[in-house]
Recover the amino acids of this structure.
């Protein structure tokens, strides 16, 4: 059985759904999931579809070509098609905090994540023993102001040689430059420890303490050139009170960070996220 | 512009989506919403679809006939089709509590609810002045053990004469008999003041207090013969602590009850709920 | 039975709790509630205490004097003492939105709020009929750019003549000037329709839509000179998705606004809020 | 600096707070935390107090004796007093699931937990490598129907020889008998994967699926003789939909289980939990 996932967006116009579902039927496909969204402000149509095929008669490449010729020009689709069997490859960037790392690797081990982790990379070697205990290769690439560009070139080499599909910054604590962003547009997932757009930048828990907020949050988003301003994938919050010290906020926040980041990873790995106009459409 | 909403369920089988979307396209319809769900345990397919038609060329009745002949027998659909212009008519049953009533009428007034409220009915006359201030007819039908059947027959008459589509028990505090349930299957919405299936029956806040739970809840569900065991439409909870007296739990619970019930009403009125095997499928 | 509520803050120092509880014991008081908080950054001690006295032997005024002489200078207390029997008087300022108004008046009617509402005031007369149906005096004081100062002077007169203790802006939609703020410091409660400090100012739901956030919120805070920057009393949020239009966000937000504002009112009316350094301490 | 934590409950009566705070003052103690609760149904007074002493002049034992003689008989206190320096010792019982284990050990490693873990015990050896990687002794004591009593006697020996203060069943999956419960009353913490009292017993996610609930939950409670009926420490829930398979419910539930259990552990280890009449009082 072949199974494909198709993501489409284009200007909204009549007959898109009927045409696509018809195309699948004509190719003996059985649609097992379909969902769509129309952005009425911008008049953009989004669709996600999963389709099963009884035989292995065609390759994903030839089916892509078929689809391209039949419909893409006609409707002006921007589109991606994935074979469900092929798991995306994810690179994990970490620094010294281990809570997100443990959470991700625990899920990875239990089979909850539909992806592969070819390696973990860090600017420090503090977390190497965790990578070792999960038997995942660990690369230590220190970053200083002077060596930043050089370090990123090394990172790019590693990413390329392992055919990495997307990158997760699991509290990596370094600003990633355009060198990487341009190669991985909407494919670098960060976890920011506040409910964005509140408390952009460094030390959000300190700012939250100072402002006296009654909720704290965490936000997972794609990295763009502007700091903490990329498309938001997932957010969650927790209630806090005046009795929370900054240390308490940080501890409480760790629980948010790890679960919000892991949820964002699952959404991305399952190809449920589309990005348009610096916002995300998240399919269920 | 005509707009229809179509709800279908049937045994899961290939080509349903393509066939239905094709049918709409052939009739010059433009699908503006489609979502589906497959219950893999029971192998049942569910679909909700909204479709717009450029002209007023056909009536909803003739289009229903067209659909019936083209597809229903072939796939064995159970189905409902609604004209989007026709708002459902909702009867409100209340007793002495006013928080749900105020919440519903406030939303109704502000245009948030896509429905009509031909009348409010109560076994007491305490809330008549509220109905008056919102200019909605109020019927007072007292219920005693002896007069229960007679009262329900009067209710049925009122429901029939106003062409009521569904009934909402906004803390009505009376057990509704099969006389009504059989006429309005999966069309009588109740609000129960606990997170079902915990604390079935009377005085759930007292039971919650005694058990020492740290969360309380509210559940909106369709009434069935078995008490508090019907299909769940919506649930929500709030955190509480040892410091809450029963009176505090009741006050906190009121906030849950009114919002959970109003959400369930909106889902039902917007034809987003399907029922199968005593469970609901809720479309977004 | 007399019952008093005492709120204290001062520099943190030894023996405060023992001295105050001892004072109450010596005056034949029985403490039925005590809670304290220490702000370790600023080294400030906060305490809230409720104490019952068997007889009506003393007036609240004479007991205040007793307390002043015994302890206030010694520890340098900033303090307030209330007789529990005396309900605070709250003025309600509204404009055209009715959801917060209905929510507050529904609770007021049911006895949930420990306060009196001498009047409702508005710059429009749209909501007069609601005030009428709840039998609460309604004053219509229009506000234009030119008449703003004059209108506020009229408001002050009304507030004074009714001995108002605190003001609630239930979606009043007007910026309140220092004329009122200075007379009612930390006594004017506003509801802002975002999770502050995100989306300060006008049209926060529009900004939330544009940013593509996955949660929206509401914040109740005391009005200060700086817009939407006063001490936060209560916040809550709800999850939303890409499928929410601005209109949907506004509707969902109404549920947050009314419950967050009503909770803040209850906290203030029950004398559970202390303000220090633009932040609140909220006692349970 | 000595610091003690004192937990008291007794019949409610006048002057308890003043007497205790006075006692601390007379012994040159400075109260840094005080909170109390009165169960008005049962007329029981509860208090938690933290007090600092400038010198190391007395041992905790002699201070306990002092307190016993001064106040305990007079008021009829049930009480516990702890030296803040002494961390409680916690035994971790696990089986094959690793998500709670990783979560607890991650927090333990980061210094978030104020306790010691002398050993991890399991009826299977699957998780030994995790214990090894965190450098915590691991004991494998298999349990079969026939060997259950023998196994529990071995467990008791281990618990005694390590001076264990409380036990955490981190998805241990075995019913613990009275042999252990009697030795550790209100000191064995379990995590049940439902919002109790709904779905008591085995396979709660399967029951939740069958009932079609819209929220799932997790409950941490002390083990008592009756299954899943002990005093509740902490609960939390998450929203789910019809689209969740049983497998999805289980995965979502894991996130609740680990955070609810870790929160309960923190509350217990910080001596913030009191038990009375099969319910808990949780101090902040």
């Amino acid at each position: 059985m072949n199974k494909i996932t198709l993501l489409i967006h284009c200007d909204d116009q009549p007959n898109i759904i009927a045409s696509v579902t018809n195309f699948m039927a004509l190719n003996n496909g059985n649609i097992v999931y379909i969902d769509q969204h129309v952005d009425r402000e911008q008049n953009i149509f989004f669709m996600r579809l999963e389709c099963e095929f009884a035989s292995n008669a065609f390759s994903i490449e030839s089916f892509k070509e078929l689809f391209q010729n039949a419909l893409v020009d006609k409707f002006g689709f921007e589109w991606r098609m994935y074979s469900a069997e092929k798991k995306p490859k994810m690179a994990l960037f970490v620094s010294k905090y281990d809570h997100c790392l443990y959470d991700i690797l625990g899920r990875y081990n239990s089979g909850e994540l539909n992806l592969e982790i070819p390696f973990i990379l860090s600017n420090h070697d503090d977390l190497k023993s965790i990578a070792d205990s999960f038997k995942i290769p660990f690369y230590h690439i220190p970053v200083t102001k002077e060596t930043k560009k050089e370090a990123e070139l090394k990172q790019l080499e590693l990413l390329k040689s392992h055919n990495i599909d997307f990158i997760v910054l699991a509290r990596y604590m370094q600003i990633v430059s355009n060198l990487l962003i341009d190669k991985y547009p909407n494919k670098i997932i960060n976890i920011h420890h506040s409910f964005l757009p509140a408390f952009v930048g460094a030390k959000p828990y300190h700012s939250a303490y100072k402002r006296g907020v009654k909720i704290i949050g965490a936000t997972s988003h794609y990295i763009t050139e502007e700091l903490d301003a990329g498309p938001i994938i997932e957010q969650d919050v927790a209630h806090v009170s005046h009795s929370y010290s900054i240390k308490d906020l940080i501890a409480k926040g760790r629980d948010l960070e790890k679960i919000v980041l892991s949820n964002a990873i699952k959404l991305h790995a399952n190809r449920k996220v589309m990005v348009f106009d610096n916002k995300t459409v998240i399919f269920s």
Observations:
- The domain at 2-83 of chain A is CATH 3.30.70.260 (Alpha-Beta Plaits).
- The CA atoms of residues 206 and 246 of chain A lie 6 Å apart.
